[in-house]
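Re: export button greyed out
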Amino acid sequence: MTAEAKAAIAASPALTERQEARRRRILHASAQLASRGGFDAVQMREVAEAAGVALGTLYRYFPSKIHLLVATMQDQLQHLHSTLRKHPPSGDSAAQRVAETLMRAFRALQREPHLADAMVRALTFADRSVSPEVDTVSRQTTAIILDAMGLDHPSPRQLSAVRVIEHTWHSALITWLSGRASIAQVKIDIETVCRLIDLTAEDDDSA
Amino acid sequence: MTAEAKAAIAASPALTERQEARRRRILHASAQLASRGGFDAVQMREVAEAAGVALGTLYRYFPSKIHLLVATMQDQLQHLHSTLRKHPPSGDSAAQRVAETLMRAFRALQREPHLADAMVRALTFADRSVSPEVDTVSRQTTAIILDAMGLDHPSPRQLSAVRVIEHTWHSALITWLSGRASIAQVKIDIETVCRLIDLTAEDDDSA
DNA sequence: CGCTAATCTAGAACAAGTTCCAGACTTGAT
DNA sequence: ATCAAGTCTGGAACTTGTTCTAGATTAGCG
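Workaround output, generated via the alternate export path:
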């Protein structure tokens, strides 16, 4: 990635209307191609063509394929989060609500398994140059989980539990996407890790 | 990957001595290059040259870079497992012993962060064509954890907990390798998820 | 409007993973 | 020892992510 491209990404504000439209077209093309054939089907030349943009321009907006797919994930997560806000989970305990929320997200991913493949593979393959963007995704995920728990001021213990839940969520998705775990297996793993929430709710003293 | 290469890998038995030596040289070269510069530094041409083998031969033994690195991980895990057998963890509870074991493995990885990077990235990036090999790694990891727990016949509950621990282990490693989590953070996550073990040890009735 | 800097385009060029090929070498069976 | 089948070698070729360049277009400003 060139230095100027890095700067262009860092200082994201102040895009003209046409630039904003280009960005949208690129993200749309990315999601579309990903939905068809997953990570491998998102080929930079094809994204550029489908978005009606030169290859160099694509790289100005997203300095690598990984950046592009992580940005695509940010986009999708935002949709998901607003959907979830409108229809909050209904479980009695925090653990139930979190599990319910994650299973809902999981079902959404099952509807577009190729897209899920592209996004999750990009996320876990990302190296340090994509850390800020991956971190954003992580914060979005955390926000969704905390929403489901109904917490505004989580304790350090609870934050640790949320982190572990996110770890499990990502890794379980990978095993499912690579065909090494069934949907039922993922469900069990999610429910298992969510028990940590109840655990941290009880005793919050011992170091 | 060609069909014949797939067959060569599937039916691994009966390698001549020279072939076994070649395989060793390749794995050694892979680990060496990985130790230097991580995933990107393991370039197939360089591996072939360092192992004194033609590029086509390298691909006959390992049908892709991912296969090669996952095999490298199998190799390293085997070392680790035998080391751990000789010096078992000393904690009182199963959770303590597992956490101790994983932290020991983590410290080993910290000594070769580039190698860790190459192996873990390959593992999580692997697609379906590498599932059998990745599954082997997973079983090795499970065996190490069960050893630490001191269990021969784990309950389904306990197996679920172990699965979640593995998820957390892999994902926490990724966040550490990509610089998004500190060593201390990883330690906390491991200790947090290990509490699941104590949880499953207690009540093993409710569905 | 007219200028200047930034942006965009088309396309060549480069890098590394992967595939393919023709010929030399090994191996195993007879 | 010899032959057939399988394996290895060196190297070219192909694919796709990434970079670079020269010229056209656009945006913002006086």
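The CA atoms of residues 33 and 42 of chain A lie 5 Å apart. The button fix ships in the next patch.
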